[in-house]
Amino acid sequence: MIVNSQQISSPIVGGVIVAYYPEEVQFLNVVKAALNEVDFLVLVNNSETPIEIDKQHVLVGKDNKHLDIIENGENFGIAKALNIGLEDLIKKGCTHFLMLDQDSLVPHAMVKHLLETLDVINTDNNVAAIGPAYFNSRLNKYAPFIQFGNWTLKKIKVNSQPKIIEAHFLISSGTLLTLDAVNNVGLMEESLFIDYVDTEWCFRAIAKGYKLFGFSGVVMEHALGDAPLVLFGKQFPMHSPLRHYYLVRNALSLLKKSYIPINWRFIVFWRMFRSFVFYSLLPTNRFEHLSKMFEGMVDGIQGKLGKYKSNA
């Protein structure tokens, strides 16, 4: 559904939270915080069992139209779930879209600050998205903003001074998209299912002439990945073997995208290769990781996308 974004006068913000068997108490707090920041909120449930939420408990001072729950009945993947939520919010007349994970607690006035910053930088209507700084609670440190250099990643550290930083990639959770970008860039690529969904969309937006920005004046806490792997006193991000399947497969899928510069594709390949070697050697269940990553490599080369299906 295409809406004429040039006729928009005041922002109407819709939020979409993708859920997959969320922890009840934590999820309730996430929903409450999000409702304080957006005009409309859609919960898209990828679990097989329905979400139990007392709307009257969370909708303090708002009526039922501000919160929708869409039950998929199965795991459609994060890309399709986001698209379902975005399409629902577009129909509601939203002009901006806040994407959230089920464990992402939105700080007070985050959307207000992102909108104000967006208003300053989007003078040419060429900004696709803006996101906050992230504090990774699993690694106990701030995640840098990312720019792609000629052949390597540039990591822009976050400090205490609020800064507007151009980025080439934004984590989906906490990112605020503009309607103009969604209309022209399109929705998320559903065939990727989970990993690299945000990366692919960001690359596609940049290829269409849009820019992405991070604003370090707002910080959102986010638990990225599973419990970290500790080696020589240093923490490394950790994922399940199945997630490593998607990471390898979808990285190879990105290498085939003609709109991504060749040097950026090399960076994606090199980071995938390093991860392949690292996680096939060091975790205690290294053979499970190696097996799943090898499956991901085979499927990625063959172009087999969508939800994981065992090759055995």
Plain-language structure description:
It is built from nine helices and 13 strands. By secondary structure, the chain is of the alpha/beta class. The chain has two domains: 6-222, Spore Coat Polysaccharide Biosynthesis Protein SpsA, Chain A, CATH 3.90.550.10; 226-302, no CATH class. Strands 1, 2, 3, 4, 5, 6, 9, 10 and 11 form a nine-stranded mixed beta sheet that branches. It has a two-stranded antiparallel sheet with strand order 7-8. α7 (241-254) packs parallel to α9 (286-302) and α8 runs antiparallel to α9 (286-302). The longest helix is centred in the last third of the chain and has 20 residues, at 262-281. The termini are far apart. Residues 1-8 have low confidence and may be disordered.
The overall strand count is: 13
In round numbers, the mean pLDDT is 91
Let me know the CATH homologous superfamily of the largest domain: Spore Coat Polysaccharide Biosynthesis Protein SpsA, Chain A
Strand content: 15-25%
- CATH architecture assignment of the largest domain: Alpha-Beta Complex
CATH topology assignment of the largest domain: Spore Coat Polysaccharide Biosynthesis Protein SpsA, Chain A
Q: How would a textbook summarize the main sheet?
A: 9 strands, mixed
Helix content: 25-40%
End-to-end gap: 40 Å
